[in-house]
Specification:
Residues 130-219 form the FecR protein domain. By secondary structure, the protein is an alpha+beta fold. It has helices at 7-15, 20-30, 35-56, 64-82, 91-108, 254-258, 272-283, 292-295, 309-320; strands at residues 123-127, 134-137, 143-146, 151-155, 163-174, 183-187, 190-194, 198-203, 209-215, 218-224, 227-234, 238-243, 246-251, 264-271, 286-289, 298-304, 324-327, 330-333. It is elongated and about 85 Å long.
């Protein structure tokens, strides 16, 4: 009586730990129609397991290149063995091998997600003009603190298997934990992915993109079509800055990240020009420099953006040793 092929044996085959006899049993099984049901079950189970591993893993680096090479070699080796057995090419067998490749990738990679089917979802777009901020509660009870001059696009209700939205600008996220539904934020070609954590994203056009983490673990990838490039896996107190094709990771103060919720704006060795760009968004004002050299002065400070702009400029002027004139919404620093 032939031995049964089960999930454990399929997993061993995917990982390359089968004996020759077990590999032959699996290849024979894959030609049978009932193999598709088992492969689909493994694919679904492994996706959930891999996301849980990503959240709990303490090593902040996944050896993706090594895994991809191992998968490619594995599939190539199995195809070479299978070719002499049968000269006639069986389309059904090819379809099963395609399903096997998808299952294999799900075991080793946690970065492959299909795009949402927008026809089945109703989307909401929330835009803040300069000078306005807002707090948004999503359908899963996650909270988004959307900054001034920023835009968030999200579904009225998330899909069954993931929580996906798009951001332009700046926002702080407090994500409700759900290991079965990853939370994904798209900012142009960069994708930030979590299960449940709190973090801040800043993504304005033609400016460096940054992701800062307060709690949990966050994965940041660059996505171009089907090609995914890992930029960083961040833990609390870490930040990645991506600009002009280069990603840089650094340590930060967690209070600098969480302070965004209460309008506390932290600047670390930032130019006065960069600080004023932020103030323009938060206060809906136009700031110009009479002396451009002054705009390059660098400062480290935390600003309370709940106070009137003139009081804030008094404090900033004392620290930066400058004077200013203000008329309506126009400010000149001299």
């Amino acid at each position: 009586m032939p031995q049964q092929v089960d999930k454990i044996l399929i997993e061993k085959f995917l990982q390359g730990t089968c004996s020759k006899q077990e590999e032959e049993r699996v290849r024979i099984f894959l030609k049978k129609p009932e193999s598709e049901v088992l492969l689909n079950e493994i694919l679904s189970a492994n996706q959930t397991k891999d996301f849980a591993l990503f959240e709990e893993e303490n090593v902040p680096h996944l050896k993706q290149a090594k895994w991809r090479n191992a998968i490619n070699l594995r599939i190539a080796a199995e195809n070479e063995k299978a070719l002499p057995v049968k000269k006639r090419f069986n389309l059904k067998y090819a379809a099963i091998w395609a399903a096997l490749l998808i299952a294999t990738l799900s075991v080793y990679l946690i970065t492959h997600f299909s795009k949402p089917t927008e026809q089945a979802l109703t989307f909401i777009e929330h835009s803040n003009p300069n000078g306005q901020r807002s707090k948004i509660t999503l359908s899963d009870s996650s909270v988004v603190y959307l900054g001034a001059g920023s835009r968030l696009r999200y579904p009225e209700r998330f899909s069954a298997n993931k929580r996906e939205l798009s951001l332009y600008g700046e926002a702080f996220f407090e994500v409700t934990k759900n290991p079965k539904k990853p939370f994904i934020i798209h900012t142009g070609a960069v994708r930030t992915q979590v299960l449940g954590t709190s973090f801040k994203i800043k993504a304005f056009k033609n400016k460096p993109l940054s992701v800062e983490v307060a709690t949990g673990k966050v994965r940041v990838d660059k996505v171009r079509g089907n090609k995914i490039e890992s930029l960083a896996i961040l833990i609390p107190g870490q930040k990645v800055v991506y600009f002009e094709g280069k990603a840089t990771t650094k340590d930060i103060e967690i209070s600098d990240v969480t302070g965004f919720k209460t309008s506390q704006l932290a600047f670390r060795n930032s130019s006065l020009s960069e600080i004023c760009e932020t103030l323009e968004r938060w206060y809906n004002v136009k700031i110009t420099f009479k002396n451009q050299r002054k705009s390059r002065d660098r400062m480290t400070l935390t600003i309370d953006a709940t106070v009137p702009v003139n009081k804030l400029l008094n404090v900033l002027g004392a620290a930066g040793k400058f004077h200013y004139n203000i008329k309506n919404n126009e400010i000149i620093i001299r």
